[in-house]
Design goal:
- The complex is a heterodimer of chains A (about 130) and B (about 375).
- By secondary structure, chain A is mainly beta.
- Chain A has one domain: Sandwich (Immunoglobulin-like), CATH 2.60.40.3340.
- Chain A is globular and about 35 Å long.
- The N terminus of chain A is likely disordered.
- With about 375 residues, chain B is an all-alpha fold.
- Chain B folds into 3 domains: about 170 residues, Orthogonal Bundle (Cytochrome Bc1 Complex, Chain D, domain 2), CATH 1.10.760; about 140 residues, Cytochrome c-like domain (Cytochrome Bc1 Complex, Chain D, domain 2, Orthogonal Bundle), CATH 1.10.760.10; about 45 residues, no CATH class.
- Chain B is built from 16 helices and 4 strands.
- In chain B, the strands form 2 sheets. Chain B has a two-stranded antiparallel ribbon with strand order 1-4.
- In chain B, helix 15 crosses helix 16.
- The longest helix of chain B has 16 residues.
- The N terminus of chain B is likely disordered.
- The chains are: A mainly beta (about 130), B mainly alpha (about 375).
- Chains A and B meet through strand 5 and strand 7 of A and helix 2 and helix 14 of B.
Chain lengths: ~130, ~375
């Protein structure tokens, strides 16, 4: 169902209305990223997923990667998210765990061939 | 004129009570502080059966596991049991710097209370289930030293234990392959250990009173403990790791302790724990997991081994902490005062360069140390 709603938006170029009202959208330097966390409220210390739809200059990137960390604490997550490709420019990452409350940072890497474009997004996780 | 206004403002500020204290001297709590405090409960928690263990929560398994736990038959020389190191009278720990059954082991004996809430077991997290963690003591020559075949045969030869096995698993232990019998024994032991939940404490009463806006209930919690709590969730930044109802995030940290188990023997901590986990045939990715869907195996599959994990050790629960001295993975700190002083005067040069950056010297006053200890004793 989700895939069905997401793909038409890509046919138009970029993820304008995908992932529903709970999605966060980032527009930066020709990149458009829409993502949502599953569940919507990130639980501290428990696994959650992130679904991402992205494009660069109106086209799906050739690859998407994501990670997260706590810059103020100088560390990342203790687990490596598992990526599942869901279509052009569309991926889901399972197994993220924020093992502390506080300020985290999502890192989205979009690839245009061998070129990487990085976008960071701050997240505050409360108990 | 501006200087006068500033001076007047300073005088007025001095006449105000400290921001964290109400006019009657009781501490006040911000919304963020309240949310953090409430997140440390409710207690006791709901304990769900472990899907990787088919006898988790089973009454026969719990009774059999208790009998196994207390039986000295299950040690090489028939003179030690699980309860030797996990003494019920000492919060299921042993009061020693490092555990001793047949010989001294490398690390401090952890309490067994609230084990079901853990994600990882052992100071380095070498096991991903309570039943898997119940196997190594049989195999370690310094602990029970009873290899699988002898373990199975000892149970088969003991009428009471053999009957307990039969009731729990519906078959004769003598008919089971040694390794499978050992895993069954570990699962019964885990079923028993899952029932070990620490009782409610003064902190729990305070936390519930705060949730209910019960000022009388809150006032019953000692002022020193409240000040310690405020430090714990505030300037001390303890709450980042000691988080949630069990006062642990279930993960690992490097807090600048010694790296040697004995001269020349480095304790790799979590780094070594992940190595052992991955080669462990009893991990949740293996054939002994009773859950065909491997619903709890994700952490094992995705755990990330990095340089940062060198010298990290499991963040222990702080529940019952007053009863589990000495402290740390190596038992190197004798008292809670020593623990608080360790953090207050932490040597940042000893911390891993990839480690937790929020660990900074606190330089607590004597009263602040005493407040923290008072708070910890209420957990």
């Amino acid at each position: 169902m989700l895939l069905a709603t997401a793909l038409p938006a890509f046919a138009q170029g970029c993820p304008e209305d995908t992932l529903g009202d709970g999605a966060t959208r980032i527009n930066k330097d020709g990149q458009t990223i829409a993502y949502r966390t599953l569940p919507a409220k990130i639980p501290v210390g428990k696994p959650f997923a992130v679904e991402v739809i992205a494009c660069i200059d109106g086209k799906p990137p050739t690859g998407i990667r994501m990670d997260a960390g706590m810059p103020m604490h100088g560390h990342g997550m203790n687990y490596t998210p598992e990526k599942k490709d869901m279509g052009p420019g569309h991926a889901r990452f399972d197994g993220l765990v924020f093992h502390m409350p506080g300020k985290w940072m999502f890192t989205f890497d979009l690839y245009d061939g061998t070129e990487r474009k990085r976008t960071m997004q701050a997240i505050r996780v409360r108990p | 004129m501006i200087r006068a206004v500033v001076l007047l403002a300073a005088v007025v500020a001095l006449l105000q009570p400290p921001p964290a204290a109400a006019a009657d001297g009781a501490l006040t709590w911000t919304d963020d502080e309240r949310a953090l405090i409430l997140s440390h409960g409710p207690w006791p928690p709901k304990i769900a059966p472990d899907p990787s263990n088919r006898v988790s929560g089973d009454d026969d398994a719990i009774a059999f596991g208790r009998a196994l736990f207390e039986s000295a038959t299950l040690s090489r020389d028939r003179n030690a049991s699980c309860a030797t190191c996990h003494n019920p009278g000492l919060a299921f720990s042993d009061g020693l710097k490092r555990g001793v059954a047949i010989a001294e082991v490398d690390r401090n004996t952890p309490s067994l209370f609230n084990m079901r809430l853990n994600r990882w077991y052992g100071w380095g997290g070498k096991s991903d289930s309570l039943w898997a963690q119940s196997i190594p003591p049989f195999l370690d020559q310094r602990e029970l030293a009873l290899p699988p075949e002898r373990l199975r045969d000892r149970i088969a030869a003991d009428a009471e234990l053999a009957a307990g096995y039969r009731r729990t698993f519906g078959r004769e232990v003598a008919d089971v392959a040694p390794e499978a019998a050992m895993v069954d024994v570990a699962k019964a032991l885990a079923a028993f250990q899952e029932t070990l939940v620490s009782p409610r404490t003064a902190f729990d009463d305070f936390r519930d009173a705060l949730a209910a806006n019960d000022s009388d209930g809150m006032a019953a919690y000692p002022a020193a403990a409240q000040r310690g709590l405020k430090m714990f969730i505030g300037r001390g930044q303890c709450v980042f790791c000691h988080f949630g109802p069990n006062f642990t995030n279930g993960e690992f940290g490097n807090i600048g302790l010694g790296h040697f188990m004995s001269p020349g023997r480095v304790d790799k901590g979590r780094y070594g724990g992940i190595e052992l986990l991955r080669e462990n045939p009893f991990n949740l990715l293996g054939d002994y997991n009773d859950d065909p869907d491997r619903t709890t195996a994700g952490f094992t599959r995705l755990v990330r081994q990095s340089q940062k994990t060198w010298g990290e050790f499991r963040v222990p629960s702080l529940r019952n902490v007053a009863h589990t001295a000495p402290y740390m993975h190596d038992g190197s700190l004798a008292t809670l005062e020593d623990v608080v002083h360790h953090y207050s005067e932490i040597d940042e040069n000893r911390l891993h360069q990839d480690g937790e950056k929020i660990l900074k010297r606190l330089d607590l006053t004597d009263r602040e140390v005493a407040d923290m200890v008072t708070f910890l004793k209420t957990l």
